[in-house]
Amino acid sequence: MMAMAQGPIHPIDAPPAIYQHGYRGGLTVRQGSLAEVEHFCHTMHGIVSQYRALGCSKVDTQRCFVMIPKIGGPITARIQAQIRAHEMAHCNGWSADHAH
Fold first, then answer.
1. Which helix or strand (DSSP H or E) is residue 65 part of?
2. Exposed (0-12), middle (13-18) or buried (19+): which is 48, by Cβ within 10 Å?
3. Alpha carbon distances (Å) from 83 to 7, 34, 70
4. What's the CA gap between 34 and 67, in Å, rounded?
5. ∠ at Cα 71 (44, 69), nearest 5°?
6. Cα–Cα distance between 74 and 91 in angstroms, integer?
7. What is the pLDDT of residues 82-93, one digit of tens each?
8. How far is CA 36 from CA 16, 22, 85, 90, in A?
9. Do 90 and 60 touch, CB atoms closer than 8 A?
10. pLDDT tens-digit profile of 28-75?
11. Measured in Å, how far apart are the chain's first and last C-alpha atoms?
12. Dihedral of the CA atoms 70, 47, 24, 76 (nearest 10)?
């Protein structure tokens, strides 16, 4: 697993505009190292992907929890903002398979 964490940052899918807005429920955003994000999203959240997890979100009724990497190393402020926007779109109803 750790070898994957050294790979390049893949382009982050931009969400459709309809999902790009503030979340209207209770929002918790947690930041961690890339290793912490990987562990939480893959191990605790059960996401299966050929890419390393750069973030994830968990939506419940009127609540959304978002996990994103903190700025540092390969994570620039711009990349962090893209990851946050991507995960916020999932809070707002964008499906996990990234279909429109």
1. strand 63-69
2. exposed
3. 17, 12, 11
4. 10
5. 10
6. 25
7. 999 999 999 999
8. 28, 25, 19, 20
9. no
10. 999 999 999 988 887 766 666 666 678 999 998 899 999 999 999 999
11. 31
12. 20
